[in-house]
Write a structure and sequence with these properties.
The N and C termini lie far apart (about 80 Å). Helices cover about 30% and strands about 10% of the residues. Strand 1 and strand 2 form a beta hairpin. A two-stranded antiparallel sheet has the order 1-2. The chain has a domain of about 45 residues: Erythroid Transcription Factor GATA-1, subunit A (Erythroid Transcription Factor GATA-1, Chain A). It is rod-shaped, with a radius of gyration of 23 Å. It is α+β, with helices and mostly antiparallel strands and about 70 residues long. The chain binds zinc ion (ZN). The site of zinc ion has 8 residues, from loops. The site of zinc ion (ZN) has 8 residues, from loops. GO terms for molecular function: DNA topoisomerase type II (double strand cut, ATP-hydrolyzing) inhibitor activity; zinc ion binding. Its cofactor is Zn(2+).
């Protein structure tokens, strides 16, 4: 087998969303995702995840320490 140095060959990465092959090149505007669908799905998951974390933050009316000790 002969080694080929082809700089024009697009780099293939695995899509973070579906694990499929994704072309990591300017020709793929959705990189590192394989498609617009995967990119939108991932962004949507991230948005709902951060929203959930924010809504689960501890309430401010929780006193610091045990009030019975004061
Ligand atoms: Zn994908």
């Amino acid at each position: 087998m002969s080694q080929q140095e082809s700089g024009a060959k697009p780099r293939i990465v695995s899509c973070p969303r579906c694990g499929g092959k994704s072309i990591y090149a300017p020709s793929n505007p959705f990189r590192p995702f394989c498609s617009e669908r995967c990119k939108n799905l991932d962004l949507g998951a991230w948005a709902s995840e951060s929203f959930r974390v924010e809504s689960e933050a501890p309430a401010d009316d929780q006193p610091f320490g045990d009030p019975r000790l004061q």
